[in-house]
Amino acid sequence: MKSINMINQQEQIVQQFERVDSKMIGMCLNLECQEQDCYFNEQQLRDHQKVNQCRDYCKMIDEIELILEYLIYELKQQQLIQTDQQIELANYQPILSNLNQQQYKLITSQDIQYLKIQYNILNKQKDQNKIIQYCLQQGIQLIEQQNWHKALLYFTKISKQQQKNDIALFYLGVILLELNECSKSGKMIEKLKTEYPTFFENQITTMTKDQSINQNNLAQLLLIGHSLFQTKEYHSAIDISDRILQIDNDNINGLIGKIGSLIMLQQFEQAIQVQNNCLKTNINKSVLILFQGLLLTKQGQYNQAMTFFNHAIQIDPKFADAYYLIANLYLDQKKFEDAIIYFDKTIDLDPYHAEAFNNKGVALKQLKKYEEAFICFEKAIQSDPNNPFGHYNKGCSLIKTKNYVDAIICLNNALNLNPTCSSPQYEIGLSFYYLINRSVFKSPKLDKKDYHQLQDEDMQHPT
Which residues cross the membrane (predicted)? Predict the structure, then answer.
């Protein structure tokens, strides 16, 4: 194998690309492309995609890495009996290594041509779905090994390659929770429920038909456990959670699945007992400590909850959700300056935390800092356009500044995102009332003085 590599390296005519640097994000894999250089930075790739014949061949670096990884896997599955397969493997591996390490200048023109040929073959064989299946298989195997960080990479690759993939979305939510990314995990599960409303019911139906559960398959148990909880089969969810914890006694999904099911069954004392037992044996699990704080918050024990949230931060100083929950406690206690400090810390750690932006806006409005509050509501919408709270609060602000037309648009967005909420309906009616009775059909620009007349009730994102 080593001699083959040496021969290949000697035969290659190394062409350094003047444009190639760490900012390169993709390349064109069209065999018929006339462009001299195949590597592109963001702007160059966008411009090159305008060339009709190349549009579908412009690939991001991580997509190309995945193609190479799949080709290497396929060759290894064939046991490398033939010499030509050995040569292929010797070609793939150094290219993949250079891509991984962003050593783009070490990739030769011959390497690029080789990549183009292989991609063309894949296209003709329609093997793109096989690559997705490969990632899914690898990701599930890594979950079985409890290698959460590496599993995350594979499911992230699937979501980039194939945005409409419900299984990838589910396992991303599961993995992120294991990695203490509670907020991101929750968003993934909510996105799954929004885009695939019958996902969990379908899993239960499939399980019922098959009538077989592999009691040692962690990935399958996690899927069934979540499905049972989401379909309110709490007793069965507890049984599956117990089995998950037998395989992995530190599994956060299993622990929270059990505690959450007990809470839904109103077995609060047992839930607290399970939680306390978990904390005794998992003292470094900041997410469990956070969950204990949430339980105390629900019981109105705010001081004790604050202690647990601060403890979670001591264990993991970059735990954005812990700062966010402390901020919400201060907000509930009308300690608005303290709340803003912790919302800012949340945003520093997670710049796309829509809930933190929204609730910071609520705090700022209480301090009569209306312009800053309005900016926060806009950032909440930018961070998560599907979150109704930002739309509602921005709409209410626009009403008080007599910007009724834009207010109706925002409030209608909030209503579409949450049709069961009556507050946007009332505010929409109020806006139409002012439009009709005051004949205000033109949206005025926001006036600093008008902000000081704001007295509407804000919609705070719940804990």
Answer: none
Residues 41 and 150 in one domain: no
Is the C-alpha dihedral spanning 420, 423, 424, 428 positive or negative?
A: positive
Rounded to whole angstroms, the Cα distance separating 51 from 60 reads: 16
Q: What pLDDT, in 10s, does the model give residues 268-314?
A: 788 878 877 877 766 557 777 887 787 788 778 888 889 989 988 98
Q: Which domain holds residue 441?
A: 359-463
Q: What is the DSSP letter of 51?
A: S
Q: Are residues 314 and 413 in the same domain?
A: no
Same domain, 115 and 137: no
Which residue blocks in 333-455 are alpha helix, DSSP H? 336-349, 354-366, 370-383, 388-400, 404-417, 423-438, 448-451
pLDDT tens digit string along 89-116? 566 667 666 666 666 666 667 777 777 7
The pTM assigned to this predicted structure is 0.62
| Residue 102 and residue 136 in one domain | no
List of the chain residues with pLDDT < 50: 1-22, 80-83, 439-456
Q: Are residues 104 and 144 in the same domain?
A: no
**Which tokens in the block code for residue 79?**
């046991």
Q: Are residues 114 and 137 in the same domain?
A: no
pLDDT of residue 294: 79
In the chain, the number of structural domains is 4
Same domain for 118 and 23: yes
Task: Give the Å distances, CA to CA, from 203 to 209, 264, 361, 409, 431.
Answer: 10, 21, 40, 38, 44
154 within a domain of the structure (yes/no)? yes
